[in-house]
Amino acid sequence: MGQVGLVGQDNWSTQFEQFVDRKTREALAAELHPYDSEVEAPSGGEARLGNAWTRQLFDGDFYFSPPSDRRRPACSLVFVQSRDGNTGARDPSSLGGGDTDKHLIYEGLSRVASDAVVAGAETIRGGDVVFSVWHPELVGLRASLGKPRHPMQVLATLRGLDFEHTLLLNVPEIPVALLTVAPCITLMQDELASRPWITTIVMDRPEELPGAFERLRAMGVRQMSCVGGRHVATQLIDHGLVQDVYLTTSPIRGGEPNTPMYPTRPAGRLVARKHGSADEKGVVFEHLRV
Q1: Other CB atoms within 10 A of residue 33 CB
Q2: CA dihedral sign, ordered 231, 23, 248, 266
Q3: Which strand (E) or helix (H) includes residue 141?
Q4: What is the CATH T-level fold of the domain 6-289, as seen in this structure?
Q5: pLDDT for 56-80, tens place per residue?
Q6: Is the pTM of this model over 0.70?
């Protein structure tokens, strides 16, 4: 692909405006049911986040870990799983986490303080996605922290990307970082040359994620939220790069079989456990500090 033409970029801008409008309307229209706290046990080392609107729905503050050293960002994992432990689904809402999890946590509190959102290439299949916050209460809370409107988008890929049909690769006002290996850069060189807002972080081997995180910290990224997929999550946990796990478990069975977030439950201290109410009774949210 050659240079992105003016008409093409205008089309992407229009598509992005429509996407933002749709996501905002969806967030405002969603009927959100308050969570009830079973456990709330911060150690004192966590930062806390919230406003009157979020605290009423979340039943208190949302906690997250600041960076533990100057070399790398703090990183959290945000997943919803079915009752039988599956996280893979073409439509994540089919896993049964509910609208409160989606709009208050997944597209909300877990990203409000994040400088970047990390996803694997498979997570953005379908193309029409940008990882940000959408409800005006959450947009305002993010602004109060001095954060830009949208987090940086960080994509991990070992096979290349579909630039022609992926929204978040074609919005110049949102910086993107690609975590990849040298052979992929060769495959994508023309597309990358025409998109100067995309930065590449090249690893010799996929196992070099700690070094990639150091590059991201040098780019000003202090807090990161990883939203999938599970292979990326496994690599992050195995390399000791995760501080917080936010896991919502639904009361229904479903999802693609044998797709857990991690082969075993991540070891960590329980910071909070919350329960859904009304139509979302049976939903359980847990915050583990790894």
Answers
A1: 18
A2: positive
A3: helix 136-144
A4: Dihydrofolate Reductase, subunit A (3.40.430)
A5: 999 999 999 999 889 999 999 999 9
A6: yes
